[in-house]
Amino acid sequence: xxxxxxxxxxxxxxxxxxxxxxxxxxxxxxxxxxxxxxxxxxxxxxxxxxxxxxxxxxxxxxxxxxxxxxxxxxxxxxxxxxxxxxxxxxxxxxxxxxxxxxxxxxxxxxxxxxxxxxxxxxxxxxxxxxxxxxxxxxxxxxxxxxxxxxxxxxxxxxxxxxxxxxxxxxxxxxxxxxxxxxxxxxxxxxxxxxxxxxxxxxxxxxxxxxxxxxxxxxxxxxxxxxxxxxxxxxxxxxxxxxxxxxxxxxxxxxxxxxxxxxxxxxxxxxxxxxxxxxxxxxxxxxxxxxxxxxxxxxxxxxxxxxxxxxxxxxxxxxxxxxxxxxxxxxxxxxxxxxxxxxx
Length: 343
Description:
disordered C terminus; alpha/beta; 10 helices; single chain; six-stranded parallel beta sheet
């Protein structure tokens, strides 16, 4: 769950007059389940959105919501689980790390920050949020600034500074990015699981197809469904350099037309479903395309549509995280991979 999702939830809870607190990991030492910068929403009625631990800290944080809300002040809570014999949470958690978690009541000036942050992320901006405050104090300064757009798969820019001083002065800087957009060309049954897994992985999904009966929100809930032939789809969707695009319509002429439309348009990821030979013919006499992945998906020996969908989304996550991918090698079950989609 990314920051845009959390902002949406926080604003919804505010409209319902539910006491809401944003919890953010601002400092980690040793091993931890989540990294610095991750956030979640907690409410006074016990609702939890997102996670910052495997479940061992959330109940204690929920118990603090009312007190943080009533104080109208930020609060930093420390959880030290480094001792091997730590039984302070009723069981040996064994995480082996220390976490500082910032609790911020979504009210007053911070409500305005959340509203502005949501607006900017929804407009596709990268936004830097700087927090300066004293531990458990009522003075906190928020600053929002614009970060020039970078490719969605670039490393996240997060800086945590916790100066060692008796005044416990904190500065926390976090860059939030809009959700990357995944454009699936093809609304067949094999796109359905890719769509749902990609949504869970933090992508905004767009489905494009010329078959009106297949390209529907009933088949792809939560996605933006666009109907039209390639030229019309391209004009309506307007792919950009931060987008992820996968061609999985299994219609050779339509995909060739789409590829030709993208000659002058870079994207973060371009995946083509099917065999290497099919892709070679699809790209015949066309220039080399940046960030082309074919066959699409990580080489995990996937067999059948479900496993293939998992391999595809795993590759999307790897690219989004900036991982260096090893060139695909032929695997024992590669022919199953091709035949499952009629490549």
